[in-house]
Structures are given as structure tokens and as C-alpha cells.
Amino acid sequence: MTERIEARFLGVPVIYKDGKEMFFPYNKVNALVYYMLVKGTVLRDELSGILWADKPDTVARKNLRNAIYETKKVLGQDVFISPRKAVIKVNPAIAVTVDANQFEKDPRGQLDLYQGEFLQGFFVKEAEEYENWYLTQRDRLENLYMEALLQKLKDATAVKNIPQVTRYGRLLIAHDPYDEGVYLHLLKVYCQEGNVHQAQELYEEMKKVFHEELRSSVPVEIDELLRQGRQQGNQPYKVELPKQTQITGREKELQQVRRIVEEFLQGGSSETLLIRGDAGSGKTLLKDALVKGMPSNVVVLQSNCYQPEQNILLRPWTGIVEGLGNLVERERLQVPRLENLRLNELFPQMDMGGDREAGLAEVKDMLKVDAVFHTLYTTLEAAASHKTVVIIFEDLQWMDPLSLSLLSSLILHKKSPRLLFLLTAQESKEKAFQQFEAAVSMYQKLRTLDLKPVGEDVVRLFAQQAELKVPVTDELVHRLMQESEGNIFLLKECLTAFKNTGSLDNLTENMINIFKTGCCSLTDTQQKVLEFIALFYDGAPLAMISEYMHLNSLQALEILEELRSRNLIRPVTQQPEVLYEIIQQKLKEYIHQQVSPEKWRILHGYVASLWEKRLTHSPQDIRLYHHLEYHYQEAGELVNMGRYKLKILMYYLNFSNELFPVLSSTEITPDDEKSCYIETNLSQFLSEVDEMMHTIKRNYGETPEVRDLEMTYLHLMGRHYIRVGEYEKGVRNILSLIEQASEVHNRDYMLMGYKQMIYYDIQIGNTEEMKNYLEIALNLADECNYHKEMGILLRLKGLNMIMQGNFEEAERLLKESISPFMVTQNVKRRYALNIAGSYNYLGEIRRGQGKFQEALDYYKQALDYSKDQEAYSSWVVFSCNAGVACWNMGDYDQAKKYFLQAYQLFPRYVFYWRHPIVESGLSLLAMRENKEEEAIRFLDDALQKLGNMNNPREAGYVYMAIALLKKQYPDSRIAQHYEGTVLSYGTRALQELDPYRDTWERAQMEKLF
User: Fold this and answer.
1) Which residues on adjacent β-strands are paired with residue 81?
2) pLDDT for the residue numbered 196
């Protein structure tokens, strides 16, 4: 059924069905579809009358039926329905979107939908009624478009949004280049805003149009308007930024604050502007650029708030008061109520002989708070009546509560449009600061610009401008991004360190000083918590912080909230438990430097012990293994570190590389960053593991713990190399494992080694050696009373019987192998893939017997058992075998379905089991569909993978596919692409195909002879 139809009629008409563009056989069908989609419900007589008005009724109705038939052939049988015989309507079950209808409902909101006139360029012969309809629609929609544009232009003008004014004005001109009113409107706006250059360009454009196309001159009033604009071009209401201003990474924000300040200077909004961002985010850069660009007649008064002075009441106002006093004196302003008192007499704390230890209540009384407010308010209003005044406070988060209260009152009661407060601040949880923000925001007296961390494109630009001695690579940019976290100050300091030392691991003096300032006032308890959080690489759990500090959660939260209010830590969001992390990587490094190496190692060992308490001995532990590896490594406990590093690798290889892995009832898929790293950088990870083992053996010698670790290592490495076809390395590791396990009588590792040798023999088709290892392994499993291992080994023995052609014994063993896994639902689920593997091998038996439908039924059972698991290699095997069975029966559609199902899973695991067979099948199917390039690509890929596998049977399928293609398509490019004759490939296929399981394929090859 058709699910979605999208019609674009504003412009050249196009119709999409389920995302694909559709074409109709003749124009009357197009006309019918366009009319129906716009109208939705239409009478049949109306349709025939509008399209075939000049035809007799019988002919018109016949033509309508034919047109509807052609429409349904293209759009689907269900696109139009007839609830009554006389009515035809668009099926409401189909999601239909028509841009013309959307635009008509909300022209201003859907302005971008108008890409041209309605049904642009469309014409239908001998249908005058239809032509009248779409021309009327075209004019009506065009008028709606022009009205919407005009209103948008007026709205943009009202808020002085010059880019939007230009956009909508230009669209109006494009539609009607002779409309004097639009030109006049734009020129007025440009001249009022001082954009004389832009006005001049538009004027020249207009003059050219009027002269060349209308043979007339520009109206006199427009000439006069431009002349006045040129004269006013130098008026001081622009913020002229110095050419050398460096604001890399904050260009957009600079233009934003520039527009806000210019709007204020031109008599517009004077709402307080707050530039908010982390320390080093560029707040001061923006403020300084604005101050430098201010017109000379603007009075700028600045004050900084400092953390050490946070408890000194009204200290931030002292500089402002002094500047106001100078302004009053210089301009001889008449300030009511001031009488003969000087402003600074209201600020006794400026008297250095005063009592600095006075209590808060006493100081408030001394300052006469009401008098301070009224005097400042009156003075500021008086100053703003003569001059444009900008008051700047930096680092507002460190302002004392009384100063914040005074500032809040002044902002709320301010009347003069020529007074602007410009503030910078970091995010703060301080109560007084929060109250200030809430108060001025609630009454819509505050504009806030948040400075976000810069992105990698800006980091790259900074690095390129730094003139480094090395190329600016993606890797370097990514590392700079990690170290600076998009903070401009830290980014500049990182680049300085890199230029001077060639390393990004060093802290500069400026970094140390700023971090020292932030941490110097912490209590011992706060410092201890901060150091503990710095131990973790992705956040410290609240529960661990509480345990370490011997506090309950609420007590710990109080300390954490204080650290958070100082912008030292932040909570980690979207986690199952409450975590806290250091806010910046470089701050974390600074904290690390303040702790002795001995204490650091002991603390990491302690954290590792806390993580170990959380182990559940289930697959969920994989996430804990990453933590344990990291903390034991930092603690210098290499054996424990190695144990968890190998557990991580064991989990990954067991999940992705095992053919039929054992699962837990609580299985999870590894989805964290570390597991992604292992998957995409497996060879590098294996090299790291190899180097780790050499280091551990060199440092610790042959202790029992090290030997146990080495056996785990040999098993993992051997298994991996066998899976990927590096048999010599793999077998060497597994034989070493068996030898070492035998020496220390570790029967578990001995059994693991025997099983890996069996898997190896399966891959290379060594039936006899496989049989020998099976007997040894079965005896050992029986001796150890390992029932589940017996089930696995019986399945493998069944496969061995299949490889020897003893189908009867194989079937008995396979059915017997299922029994140990059916004792409980939990065991059945845990060993689901082993049960599925047995059904898969039963399918192999039936296929070898030529009972292809029975074989397919077994493969389907195998797929059913594995459907809820994440074992991609098993899915590939079962889907591949099902595809082969379908091919044997001649059901090519089903064969393609199963082969594609397997092919799509190839990227999800790292070895090539069954890849060549799947790609051979897809190549044969592609040639049946005349897709020769695709067929060649599949076969080339299969041949390349054979070189990494040494699997005779899979090679046989590839050679068979080439032989069949050469035989069936002797003159094709694919036949020439592969050197050799049909018979040579047929002979090689017969040599490699299994004589018992691949009887159908061998028969096809024998026919070639």
C-alpha cells in the first residue's frame, strides 16, 4: 500500500510516492492528479467536465475512467477511493502533503514553500475550464505570497532586523522589479540604520532597471533620501570595531551584542545585557571589543567583581560611584537631593581607616541603603539625560548580595532609554545571583547571551593561526578539543604549551594561576572531595563519594552543590546513578598535580576496590571492567589491570567472534565508547595486550597469578587468530595453552584449548585431527562432569560425523546434544545458540540427502532460536545456509532474501565465516537481474576473503559460481574478468566442495563435463 504522497505545486510540479518521483503517461492524467490532490474530494462529473468539456458525456466518462486507471497504475490502487459512485476522493489512509494547501493555510509561516507560481510551466490542451481553474489558483496564491512578504518586511522593519528586511525586500523586488514603494522602503531603512553603502548599491541597481527597462529616471524623493543618508552616515550611533580586533570563534556572538548595543544607541531597547559563559569562554573579549568600538560621546563606566572580595559589601560599586562623581563634576550636572554631599560619603568602606570587621547589620546601617539607591538612581538618570551611559560589571557571580540587590533595583526602576547595564557572569548556583536573575528576567528587563564551547572548526582555525611547526591534522584538532573542551582561554593556552614544549600534557602558568584562584578558598573537606572526583575518568558515583567521606548522601550532596556553585564540578547527565565529574580536563590535571604520586596510587587502588564490590559475575560487569582496568593501571597493580583488560577482550571476542557463543540470561550488547574503540581498532588493542603481557612477565616473573593470566591471554589470542584465518599464530598459541594448562593441571584451560583446536579443524576441513581432539575433550569433560560442555562437544562430534558422511550417527549425536540444554528455561536461553547450531547441522544433513525443504525447516528453527540474541556470526551462518537451500529448490526470491539478510550483518563482526558463500550466491542472483557490475563486485570481494581463510568448502562455492557464470554468460564481461576456462573452475570446485553436504552443487559441476 502507498504510505505517503508529497506534491510540490508551487513551482514546476513534482509528485513523490514514498520518496520516489513519479511520472504519468500523458498531461490529462497529470491534470487530474493535480486537481484531485488540491481538492481532496471531487464529483466525477466535475472532473470529466473540467477536463473534457468539449466531449460527449459518454466519451468524457470513459476518458476519466482511463485517466484514473493510469493514475492508479503509477500511484497505487488505493490512492483514490469512491465512498459513493458519484464521488471520488483521495484515500485518507494515505499521508498526503500538498505544498500549495499548506502555504494557503499559513502564508507567513510557510513562506519558504513558495518556490514559484502555481503549476509553473504546466499546460493542458483543450481544457479551458481547467486552465481557468489553475490560473485563478495561481493569481490567488501569488497575491497571498506578496501580502505575506510585505507583512514580513514590515515586521522585520519594526524590530530593526536588517538581514530580514533585506531578504524580504529582495524577494519582493525579484517578484516585481518596478515597485517603487519597495525600493523606497528599503532605502529608508538602510539610511536610518547608517548602512549608506548598502543603500548606495540598491540605488544604483534601481537606477539601472529604471533606465534600461522603463526608459525613465529614479524619482526625485529617492534621490533626496539617499543624499540625506550620505550626510548622516557619520553620526555616532554605530559600534565601529577596530580592524585588528581578534574575536576568532566568537564572530557570531560579537555581531549579536553589537546589534543589541547599536539598537540601544539608536534609541531602541535598553534592556540589560548579560553575557554568560564559563571562565575563559570569551566574555571579556566581547566586552572589550564593544568598549573599543563605542562612539566617543558614550560614557562607559566599568567595574570588576572579585571572588576574594565577595564578602566586602558594595565594593563593586566604588569604581562606578567614582566615575559618576567625576562625570557630575565634569559636566556640572544638576542632581537633585544630592545637596553638598559627595557620592563617596555614602560608601564609608572606601575609607581605609574604617572598621573592616563590622557586622553585616552594622555595615548596612552605616551605608544607609535607601539613601544609596536613591542617590545612585537620581544620579544615573540625571547623567543619562545629558549623555549616553553604559555601566559594565564583569564576573557578576562574585558580586556581594547587597550590591546585587542594589543593581536589581536600579535595573527594575530605570527609566532612561540612554542608560544600559552590560554584565558578564559565569553560571552560578549562589542564591543571591539566582534571585537577581529571576527578578530582572521576570519583568523582562534582561537579555541573555550564552557563550557555548566552540566547535572543532574553530579549534582548527585557532591551530592554523598559531603557526605551529607541525601540520594541523584531524587528530591534533580532536586532541585540542579534548584538552580545551571548546574553552577559548584553555585552547589558547594549550596551543602556547604545544608551541613551547611540543606536548599538550603540560599546564601553562596562566592555567595554574586561574585554577589556583578557583581552588584556593576551598575547605579541607571540599578539597578532599574534589581530589576524589578527579580520580574517575567519566564521573564519580555519589554513593562512592559518600562512602569515601564517611557521610550520608545528603551530607555529601551539600558539599557537592557548593563545589558545583564554584564551577568546579558538574553532574553527569543521562546516567542510571548520580555521577559528578570535574568540569574541565585541564582542571583535573591541575588537581592531579597537587596530589603526591604515592597518595594518587593508593586512592586509585581504593577506588578499584569499590568498583570490585559492585561485580555481579554477569555480562553487565563489562562496564565495570573498564573502570577496574583504568584504576588498577593508575594504581600500578599491573596483574589486576591485565586481568580486567583480558576480561574486556574476552567479552568482545566471545560476543563477536564465537560461532555459537554461550549467552547469559541477562545478556547485554557492549555499547560504550571503550567497546566501540576495541571493535574499530582491534589490531591495535591486541598489540597493546601483547605488550602488556611482556611487561607483566618482565616485572613479576612466573608467579601463579601471572601464569593464570598468561593462559587467559594465550586462549584469547589463539582463538582470535584462528577466527581471522591466521592459523599458524592461532595454533601456536592454543598448543602453548594446552601445554601450560597440562603442567599446572588446569583442566578448564585444557578443555578450552581442545575446543579451539576443534574449531580450527572445522575451518580447514581436517576431519581426522578433529576426531582425535573430540575424543580427548569428551573424555576430559566426562571426567570433570561438565554436562553442558558435553552437549557442545556432542554437537561438534555430530558435525564431524557429517564431514565423514555418516549422517545416521550424526543425527543421533545432534539430537542427543540438545538434551543437556533443555533442562530449564534459563539453561535453554543461555545455550540457545548451541541448540540452534544443532538444528543448523541437522539442516546440513537433510541438504546433503537432497531434502531441501526439510533442510530449510531446520534452518528456520535455528534462526528462531537465535532471533533474540546479538550473535551476528551465528545469524550469518543460519541465513546463508537457508539461502543455499532455497537456491537448491529454485526459489530465487527467498534465496536473495536470506543472502541479503546475512550480507547486511557482515560489518557487525570481524571474521569472514560464510562471507564467500553468501557473496557467491548474491553474484549469481545479480547476473539473473542483469546487474553485471554488482556481480563482479560480489565475486571479487569473495575471492579476496578466501585469501584470509583457507577454508576449502567456501572456496568451492566461489569457484562453482565463476564456472556457472562463465558457462551461462560466455560473452559477458564477467566471463572475461576471471582468467581460466569453465572446466578449470569446475574442476577446482569439485576438489573443494564437501562430498557429503554439497551433493547438489557437485552435481551441477559434474554436468559441465
Assistant:
1) 89
2) 63
Distance between CA atoms of residues 869 and 127, nearest Å = 62
Count of CA atoms in the C-beta half-sphere (13 A) of 314: 22
Handedness of CA 967, 972, 974, 976 (dihedral sign): positive
Q: Residues with Cβ < 8 Å from 876, sequence gap 6 or more?
A: 902, 905, 906, 909, 913, 914, 915, 918
The whole-number average pLDDT for the span 788-809 is: 90
| DSSP annotation of 398 | G
DSSP state of 906: G
Location of C-alpha cell 548522601: 553
The mean pLDDT value for 928-945 works out to 93
Range with the largest mean pLDDT of 47-51, 619-623, 933-937 = 933-937
- Kindly state the cell numbers that stand for 247: 574575536
Question: What sections of 819-947 are H helices per DSSP?
Answer: 825-830, 832-848, 852-866, 872-889, 892-903, 915-928, 932-946
Where residue 179 falls among pLDDT bands split at 50, 70, 90?
A: confident
Please state, rounded to an integer, the average pLDDT across all residues of the chain: 85
Q: Residue with C-alpha cell 531578504?
A: 167
Radius of gyration for the alpha carbons in the chain, expressed in angstroms and rounded: 40
Question: What is the three-class DSSP state of 388?
Answer: strand
Q: Minimal CA–CA distance to 938: which of 977, 993, 985?
A: 977
Q: Determine how many CB atoms are found less than 10 A away from the CB of residue 590.
A: 20
Query: CA end-to-end span of the chain, whole Å?
Result: 49
Beta partners for residue 90, in sequence order: 80
Rounded to an integer, what distance in angstroms lies between the CA atom of residue 955 and that of residue 765? 12
Interacting residues of 698 by C-beta distance below 8 A, sequence separation 6+: none
Closest CA to 155 of 144, 167, 138: 167
Q: In this structure, what is the dihedral angle of CA atoms 240, 244, 248, 250, given to the nearest 10 degrees?
A: -20
Containing 694, the helix (H) or strand (E) segment is helix 682-700
What are the residues facing 275 on neighbouring strands? 424, 449
DSSP string over 627-671: HHHHHHHHHT-HHHHHHHHHHHHHHHHHHHT-SS----TT-----
Contacting residues for 166 by C-beta, under 8 A, at least 6 apart = 186, 198
The answer to whether the beta carbons of residues 245 and 296 sit under 8 Å apart is: no
The SS3 of residue 15 is strand
254 and 247 Cβ atoms separated by less than 8 Å: yes
DSSP state of 389: E
Q: Which of 6-15, 179-188, 218-227 has the highest mean pLDDT?
A: 6-15
Q: Are 630 and 636 in contact (CB under 8 A)?
A: no
**Beta strands in 660-762, from DSSP E residues, in sequence order:** none
d(CA 9, CA 29): 15
DSSP state of 83: S
Half-sphere exposure of 186 (CA within 13 A, CB side): 26
- DSSP state letters, 850-882: T-HHHHHHHHHHHHHHHTTS--HHHHHHHHHHH
Q: How many CB atoms lie within 10 A of CB 838?
A: 29
Q: Which pLDDT score is estimated for 244?
A: 53
* Residue 935 and residue 927 in contact, taking contact as beta carbons nearer than 8 Å: yes
Q: 483: burial class by Cβ within 10 Å (0-12, 13-18, 19+)?
A: buried
Mean pLDDT of 294-298: 82
Record the cell numbers describing residue 310, joined without a space: 565577595
Which three-class secondary structure string do you get for 570-633?
Answer: EEECCCCCCEEEECCHHHHHHHHHCCCHHHHHHHHHHHHHHHHCCCCCCHHHHHHHHHHHHHHH
Taking 50 as the threshold, does the pLDDT of residue 559 lie above it? Answer: yes
Q: Which three cell numbers stand for residue 165?
A: 528586511
Measure the CA–CA gap between 921 and 939, rounded to whole angstroms. Answer: 9
Residue in this structure with the C-alpha cell 532455497, named with its chain if needed: 886
Contact partners, residue 529, CB within 8 Å, separation at least 6:
545, 549, 556, 559, 560, 563
**Are 665 and 618 a contacting pair, CB within 8 Å?**
no
